[in-house]
Known about the structure:
- The protein is mainly alpha-helical.
- 50% of the residues lie in helices and 3% in strands.
- It is globular.
Amino acid sequence: NILHRAVTSGEFHKRPMVRTLSEAINIGVPYNFERILYFLTGGDCGAVAAMMAEVDGSDALTIEGPLLAKLQQLLVTTTVGDEAMAATTRAYWDAHAYLLDPHSAVCVAAAEALAGEHKCVCLATAHPCKFEESLQAAEMGEGFWRGATSLAETEHMPPSAAALRGLPEVGKPDFLALDGGRAPLEESQAAWERQLRGMVAEMARDGSARL
């Protein structure tokens, strides 16, 4: 909850990471915070670079004074734990037959916690079929599982995802330059795109997934 701590107290300080059921939120220092600093400083790249160097050097940046006041005007945050995430997932399934992934459930739980003070729009971030452990922890009930022992056996697993589960694992691509150094970023990006397009085309040809 480093972002919440930064907004409420100005302490963008790294702490030992505690694993949660919302995997994408398990991060010690979110470096995209640099983007927020950029807008807070009115695009002062020098000031942002100095602050990020402080983060890199000490794992801690303390935001104070007018900058903190501006941050608190810009963002309103709260913290949502695993129990609240699981309860929100279960509640929205029971009330609306809508299945939230754990990260979207965190967002909805936060929005509900701030209800009455702020109007919120929640954007779902991922398909819940990627997070079976979280759905098990949410204790979705027999009506959700209908006798299935895994998510793959339920109607909640989309056909395209089920097809991807059956594909063989592929090795990590090697994008090193011929001289032994690392390839320029543009070349690496182009290589990734070629490989991805090739995989998509191969899947379309053999009918292993609907694209």
